[in-house]
Structures are given as C-alpha cells and as structure tokens.
Amino acid sequence: MSRAFVKETETVEELPDRLVSAHRNLVTREGFAQIEAEVVRLHEQLAAAHEGGDREAIARVNRDLRYWNQRLGSAEVQPEPTDFSVVSFGATVTLERDDGRVQKFRIVGEDEADPAKGSISYVSPLAQALLGKSVGDAVKAGAMSAEIVAIS
Questions:
Q1: What is the pTM of this model?
Q2: Is the pLDDT of residue 74 over 70?
C-alpha cells in the first residue's frame, strides 16, 4: 500500500522547559501582579488552543505555563524601600555618567526588568555594583564610571 493513502498521526514533541534562574525570585508588588496576569493570559491562550485543536500552540503555551507557574510559586514579594540612604531592591537610582548623561534605573526582579523602560534586574552587573551604595558613591557602569546622585 502506498504511503500516500496512510494517515499519519501528527505528533508534536513536548518543548523543553524554559530555563529558570538559580537566583532567588525577588519581585516587587508590580512584578508579582505581572506574573499573575501572565498566568491568567496563558490559561486563556491554552483554552483557545484546545478549542482550535492547535497542538503546537498547546505545547508552546504548556511550556510557558510551567515556567510562569514555577515563577509564581517561587516569587518573594519584597517590601517597598523606606530607607533611601543606600540603594536597595525596589529603589530608583539616578546616575550621572562620566560623559554627563543622567540615567534613572529601578532595581527589580529578573522577570520584570526592562532596561529600555528604566528597570534593571537585581542580579545584573550594574545593580550589583549599586546595591548598598549611597549618594555620592561612584560605581563602574559599563566602560565608564558613574556617580549616584539620587536614591528614591
């Protein structure tokens, strides 16, 4: 019998899990809300994929749900900083670089970091250089140095 007349069973391999950071999953309240919203959104996508019989989408969404459910379960919501004498998780730091540029960064959890929008992960090299420092301290920021001019 010709293979042209045999219906092949479509199999979709389970996608490998997304890598989970070995660092503690510290998050701001906003970051925790973002994780919760992502889980809800993915459950909606999974229902739609099941409804449409889209096996590839089901596999992709299931993988993402495993990741975000793990992140939700391991999230450690950190209190808002109240002491702005030193840089801490959740603080916004204003830096003045050697070339005169002024930049602001909020130190947040890994999943909520978005440097283009002014938030950096607490495990990033810049955040690691800033944590525990005070206004007036200089830190290495890439190839240059920068001075902390404000903490809020």
A1: 0.84
A2: yes
